[in-house]
What does this fold into?
Amino acid sequence: MFLWGLLTDFTSTVSSIVVATVIAGSVVLAPAIIAGYAVKAAIRDDIEHGRDPG
It folds into this structure.
């Protein structure tokens, strides 16, 4: 949508859609990153305590 705005008239509607998309992406990405670190920490803890990390 950002590219569309650059190639055509960059209206307030296009700007609002771009901002909303960036915010939505951040809301989805942040928990995914945290969950990834949590899984890595759990695997590391399993290995350190002699458990099968599965």
The chain has two helices and no strands. Residues 12-48 form the longest helix (37 residues).
